[in-house]
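Supplementary Methods. Inverse-folding protocol.

Structures were first reduced to a discrete structure-token string of length 432. This string, shown here, constituted the complete conditioning input.
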């Protein structure tokens, strides 16, 4: 009996630990919390951060080439007893070792320009990281909102399905009493099946949306999510509409920022091409210590210390440098043209995005009201049907209208979110 009690206690403890583990895997997240979690754990954003670190490392790699370089060597030679003969004299070639250390520094205008160009690459990587962060927040907001909309729709459909089941049960009783034809039951059964199928389809979509959100967050696949921000707060159309009133500062657009850096880079590439005509300077100091290991000291002609300097001046390369300058200038002009074209395109895009957002808000308000109306019509028609003041056809039409209205409502919500995100991305604003 004691063993059985012990086994039961252990079993209950394990079961309790399992429940605690399941509870620990549940995450309650508001929209800002979900976005911040994704920023911290999303793999794409982590890679963008690594790109910044790579650019930083490349910058310091180029910078270090301007600093003194020190190297040392040690070698050992043994001629295995060989003696050199010179006019009857025998000179022993004793084993020897040589230690040498060289400190050198090389400097050219191209190296300095390369450092400046790497600095631009670092800035571009930083901009791309911010752009990826904005894209991550965008994706999270889109999926988060889709889940909230779908959950509301499922609740509405569940309510309507309960009402339709009540009508169907009442109709069956009326058939049994001989008050209505059996065909009325069949017609209502079709509507019930249609509603049930719509609910099942939406729940499958809801499950996929939750999986998609978990992927965007970078969370464990078995995590259970509870979304705490209500749809009304996310769909605050009055606040959303204010996005169209603040104007457009093109300097805040990430794509434009990248173009600016590209233009600066193209200008420095032209300068770097011209710098190929400039001389490069090299200076060095060398220390040598040669030691013989034999009985007799050998002839040592290696100076213990030496300094030197050189200047290399490019003179003629068959027009290669001139062609490189011309190519760099053409690339610079292409970048400038792209930048001007993008400036015009972004202004047009801003006007279009403002128009799309206003239109989407108007459509959302209409579809939201239409959904409420069709829900009231369906409930009212069901009440009339139970008292004999409405026909089966009217119930069918009301049910069909309601299903259509919920589909239009979902589309209208997503159009607002899509238009809002497009405008916020253009303005360089965080999607919270």
């Amino acid at each position: 009996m004691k063993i059985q009690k012990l086994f039961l206690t252990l079993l209950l403890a394990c079961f309790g630990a399992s429940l605690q583990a399941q509870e620990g895997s549940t995450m309650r997240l508001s929209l800002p919390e979900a976005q911040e979690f994704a920023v911290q754990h999303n793999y794409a954003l982590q890679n963008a951060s690594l790109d910044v670190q790579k650019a930083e490392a490349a910058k310091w790699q180029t910078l270090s080439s301007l600093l003194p370089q020190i190297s040392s060597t040690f070698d050992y030679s043994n001629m295995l007893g060989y003696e050199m003969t010179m006019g009857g004299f025998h000179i022993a070639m004793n084993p020897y070792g040589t230690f040498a250390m060289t400190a050198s520094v090389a400097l050219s205008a191209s190296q300095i320009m390369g450092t400046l160009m790497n600095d631009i690459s670092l800035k571009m990587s930083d901009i791309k990281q911010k752009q990826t962060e904005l894209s991550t927040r965008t994706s999270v907001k889109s999926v988060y909102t889709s889940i909230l909309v779908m959950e509301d729709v499922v609740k509405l459909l569940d309510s309507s399905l309960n009402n339709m089941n009540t009508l169907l049960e009442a109709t069956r009783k009326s058939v049994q009493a001989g008050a209505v034809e059996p065909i009325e039951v069949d017609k209502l059964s079709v509507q019930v099946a249609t509603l049930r199928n719509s609910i099942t389809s939406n729940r499958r979509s809801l499950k996929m949306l939750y999986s998609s959100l978990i992927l965007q967050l970078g969370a464990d696949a078995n995590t259970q999510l509870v979304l705490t921000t209500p749809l009304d707060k996310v769909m605050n159309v009055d606040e959303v509409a204010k996005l169209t009133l603040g104007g457009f500062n093109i300097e805040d657009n990430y794509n434009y920022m990248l173009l600016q850096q590209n233009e600066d880079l193209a200008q420095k590439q032209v300068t770097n091409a011209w710098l190929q005509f400039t001389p490069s300077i090299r200076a060095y100091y060398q220390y040598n210590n040669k030691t013989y290991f034999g009985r007799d000291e050998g002839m040592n002609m290696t100076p213990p210390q030496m300094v030197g300097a050189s200047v290399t001046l490019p003179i003629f390369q068959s027009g290669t440098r001139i062609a490189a300058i011309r190519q760099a200038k053409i690339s610079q002009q292409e970048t400038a043209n792209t930048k001007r074209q993008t400036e015009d395109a972004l202004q047009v895009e801003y006007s279009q995005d403002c128009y799309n957002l206003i239109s989407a808000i108007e459509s959302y308000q209409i579809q939201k009201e239409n959904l409420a109306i069709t829900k009231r019509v369906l409930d009212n028609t069901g009440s009339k049907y139970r008292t004999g003041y409405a026909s089966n056809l009217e119930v069918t039409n009301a049910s069909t209208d309601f299903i259509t209205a919920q589909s239009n409502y979902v589309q209208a919500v997503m159009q607002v979110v899509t238009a809002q995100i497009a405008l916020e991305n253009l303005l360089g604003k965080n999607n919270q």
